[in-house]
């Protein structure tokens, strides 16, 4: 069997669940560190920075450095730099109030009815567990 070149370990569900350590995870990570296996950690978490994630794991008994962590945010930034250099981006993350200009579900076009903002507002509300403040008038 070939020696292991390195491991990419998912964080949520492998090391922690809701930032609580999974039994045996700290010990297993300690054995990997003692064996000097190169390790990087991956997560889709977007609500915490890499230093915050490293602190949470370290507090849970799993010392991790921020530069060992690959997040969806970091991967997205890398992709955008490579494929859309200089482009402006609007990043929406947790903690921001949701304000909708209106909640119309559809609008009339020359081709017939088309989905309008309200459809997307409802989807975002459901996904984020928040209620949008509606500003404009909704007709449908």
Fold and architecture overview:
The chain has 140 residues and is of the alpha/beta class. It has helices spanning 25-34, 50-59, 72-83, 117-128, and strands spanning 7-10, 16-17, 20-21, 39-43, 69-71, 99-100, 106-109, 112-115, 133-134. The strands form four sheets. Strands 1-4-5 form a three-stranded parallel sheet. β7 and β8 (112-115) form a beta hairpin. The protein is elongated, with a radius of gyration of 21 Å.
> Can you summarize the main beta sheet?
3 strands, parallel
Strand order of the largest sheet: 1-4-5
Given helix and strand content, the structural type is: alpha/beta
Q: What's the multimeric state?
A: single chain
What is the gist of this entry?
With 140 residues, the protein is α/β, with parallel strands linked by helices. Helix content is 31%, strand content 20%.
What are the salient characteristics of this protein?
140 residues, alpha/beta, 3-stranded parallel beta sheet, 4 helices, 31% helix
Protein topology:
Elements: E1 7-10, E2 16-17, E3 20-21, H1 25-34, E4 39-43, H2 50-59, E5 69-71, H3 72-83, E6 99-100, E7 106-109, E8 112-115, H4 117-128, E9 133-134
């Amino acid at each position: 069997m070939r020696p292991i070149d390195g491991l990419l370990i998912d964080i949520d569900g492998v090391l922690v669940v809701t930032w609580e350590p999974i039994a045996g995870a700290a010990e297993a990570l300690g054995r990997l560190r003692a064996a000097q296996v190169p390790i990087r950690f991956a997560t889709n978490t977007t609500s915490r920075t890499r230093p915050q994630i490293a602190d949470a794991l370290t507090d849970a008994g799993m010392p991790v450095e921020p530069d060992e962590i690959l997040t969806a945010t970091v991967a997205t930034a890398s992709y955008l730099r490579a494929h859309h250099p200089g482009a402006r981006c609007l990043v929406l993350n947790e903690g921001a109030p949701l304000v909708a200009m209106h909640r119309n579900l559809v609008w009339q076009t020359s081709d017939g009815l088309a989905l309008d903002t309200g459809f997307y507002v409802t989807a975002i509300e459901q996904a984020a567990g928040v209620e949008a403040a509606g500003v404009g008038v909704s007709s449908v």
